[in-house]
Design a protein that fits this description.
The chain is mostly beta strands and 640 residues long. Helix content is 4%, strand content 46%.
Length: 640
């Protein structure tokens, strides 16, 4: 029996080989179309016959028929290289049909494993494939199969380059896509549940060193209801300013389509995902121009190398300018564009420094870099996100489900953004049951967290840590009254920038890193505050001519105020009845303080009314107001 017959190419083998050899004979080709093109493989003769000269693509599997109609099968059952079944590995070619065939072979081999156990792999061979159509990676279902060293340049307008709908249990390493700017794919990679219940999963993946470059109309990567998956050191970038780097959602609030199956078009659980050293970016490729001049004028006019990527009314930001440093890192709207200049609407730069050199204009994005929604138990560890003119993360509430256990450890960078995390979709008060944010070196110009609604976002159980600022100190929240913090510990460099006492419900603490002070908050207000205050002293009847406040001291702890008053009536005048003394904060109802009048030794009672004052008199209800009387009262009262 003949073994290891060598044939120059697989195409020649298919079209010309007709030797009479026994079943089991192995033919080794040295390339697919040309020798050395990476598509060489070993083929073993089977007992099957069929139509002569049929390629693997024509037979839709890992077999071919020679010129005599004898069928041959790929010998390597553990690894499939798309080039062995006809892919060229040339960026300019349309290898999508051959890539889909390679994934079909991978799918068949997974199904052929005993109990889905064992290891099979698709290896792209470290070349760049071209794809004018979406690649069918759907319904891969098994454990311990691998996809590695695969790079694809996509020209599949409005479609995902790699479609993993209904696929589970695999791992990816060293996979990358690039989206063409003209024939723009919708996504580089997408995962979703299949509408067929047998493939209604897309869970248990390890996605490592996966990268999306280039331009995508929806997002570089789009994950819908994917569970129990570890994303490790992936880069989800998009150079289209109208779309996102990545979408992580548990429902159908962003369009997603498949050429190969029907995607589940409903909300589903989206739980237990881990993200390590992720890199999300709007990468403004083709939307950047170097600056050569900026006028000191009203409005300021910027001269640059090219304005073709801009239109009037669009946003831009400026960075790296020397001299006129006031112009850096802000968000602008442009008008009166020419081939090389734009006006910055409403910007009077006459008092700015004089432009000397450098700088670039960047077109701002119209949506945040990352979208997250309907997430449960998602942990982002030591991750990175870049944005220009928009928040890095949009956290949405697309349906009534309550997000849970969100941990966001991010370094945020970019230019011109007003916040780093922006809440959307909270048409009523919404809660996140377990929310942690940790960041440092923030680049926002205004606040770290914002919301597009006046409705409250209730953050429960966690922490908000901002370790350092890169820009002028931002607030933590855009408007504190739009948030509730329940069992939340806050750590910021400058607590005074945020009115934490304006938060309508706060159980937790605020640590000021600079002052090294910690303020406790309990129940419906207001934190720990203490110090002296200046009360207003009046009488119920008549008027006191003169008095001296020796001490008016208070401490607020949660919803309890501890107070101590020492007042001397130096001239009672016509004053009589209650001694009326204002409080540092409004009380929550009728309560009592106690004390002593030192002139006569009489016991005093202070009735705290529901208003903002205490009414002081002697124990027998007679007036304590008398010239020379020293009124000492102390105690506590509740605010609410």
């Amino acid at each position: 029996m003949a073994k290891n017959i060598k044939v120059s190419t697989t195409e020649k083998f298919i079209s010309s080989f007709s030797g009479s050899v026994s079943v089991g004979t192995i033919v080794e080709t040295l390339g697919y179309s040309t020798e050395g093109d990476g598509g060489g493989a070993q083929w073993a003769k089977t007992a099957t016959t069929g139509t002569a000269s049929q390629s693997p693509l024509q037979l839709n599997n890992d077999t071919l028929n020679d010129a005599s109609g004898y069928q041959w099968a790929l010998v390597d059952k553990a690894m499939i290289d798309p080039r062995t079944v006809g892919a060229t590995g040339l960026q300019a070619s349309n290898d999508a049909p051959y890539l889909s065939l390679a994934f079909k072979i991978l799918r068949d081999r997974i199904l052929g494993l005993s109990n889905k156990l064992g290891s099979v792999a698709l290896n792209g061979g470290n070349v760049v494939y071209g794809a004018d159509d979406s690649v069918d990676c759907t319904r891969l279902s098994g454990w311990n199969y691998k996809i590695q060293n695969l790079s694809i340049y996509g020209r599949c307008t409005g479609k995902a380059i790699l479609d993993f709908t209904g696929s589970r249990g695999g791992s990816m390493d060293g996979v990358s896509t690039y989206g063409d700017s003209t024939s723009m794919p919708s996504e580089g990679i997408q995962f979703a549940r299949d509408n067929d219940a047998a493939f209604g999963y897309c869970d248990n993946w390890v996605i490592k060193n996966v990268t999306t470059f280039g331009f995508y109309s929806t997002a570089g990567a789009h994950f819908r209801a994917q569970e129990t998956t570890h994303y490790d050191h992936c880069r989800f970038w998009n150079s289209n300013p109208l779309a996102r780097g990545a979408i992580h959602t548990g429902t159908n609030n962003f369009p997603m389509s498949s050429d190969f199956t029907t995607i589940l078009d409903a909300s589903a659980s989206f739980i237990n995902d881990k993200y390590t050293n992720m890199d999300y970016r709007y990468l403004p490729e083709g939307n950047v121009s170097n600056i050569s001049a900026i006028t000191n004028a009203n409005p300021a006019v910027v001269t640059m190398a090219d304005t073709s990527f801009l239109t009037n009314g669009q946003g831009l930001t400026i960075q790296f300018v020397s001299g006129m440093t006031e112009i850096n890192d802000q968000l602008y709207i442009i008008a009166n564009k020419t081939a090389n200049t734009v006006e910055l609407v409403g910007i009077n730069s006459t008092s700015f420094g004089v432009y000397t050199s450098g700088g670039r204009v960047v077109r701002t994005q119209s949506v945040p870099t990352v979208y997250m929604g309907r997430c449960e138990q998602h942990t982002f560890d030591t991750c990175y996100a870049v944005a220009y003119g928009q928040p890095q993360i949009e956290f949405g509430f697309p349906d009534p489900a309550t997000p849970r256990q969100m941990k966001l450890d991010f370094l945020f960078e970019g230019v011109g953004m007003q916040s780093h995390i922006h809440f959307t979709g909270n048409t009523t008060e919404r809660a996140i049951d377990g929310f942690e944010l940790e960041t440092y070196n923030t680049h926002t110009n205004a606040q770290v967290i914002s919301s597009d609604s006046s409705n409250v976002v209730n953050l429960k159980g966690g922490k908000l840590i901002v370790n350092s600022f890169s820009k002028a100190d931002p607030k933590l929240f855009d408007l504190p009254s739009k948030y509730k913090l329940n069992d939340i510990d806050v750590r910021v460099p400058n607590a005074a920038l945020t009115s934490f006492t304006s938060i309508p419900q706060f159980y937790g603490s605020v640590y000021d890193k600079t002052l090294e002070t910690k303020t406790l908050f309990n129940n419906l207000i207001r934190g720990v505050s203490d110090g002296l205050y200046t009360p207003t002293i009046t009488s119920e009847i008549g008027a006191i001519t003169a008095n001296t406040v020796n001490l008016a001291e208070f401490r607020t702890l949660g919803d309890v105020v501890y107070i101590k008053l020492s007042i001397t009536i130096t001239d009672a005048g016509t004053g009589a009845g209650y001694l009326q003394v204002t409080l540092p904060t409004t009380s929550g109802g009728a309560q009592m303080l106690n004390g002593r009048e030192t002139l006569t030794g009489a016991q005093l009672q202070g009735q705290v009314t529901g208003a903002s004052q205490v009414l002081i008199r002697k124990y027998d209800t007679s007036s304590a107001i008398a010239t020379g009387a020293q009124i000492i009262v102390s105690g506590m009262y509740k605010i609410n």
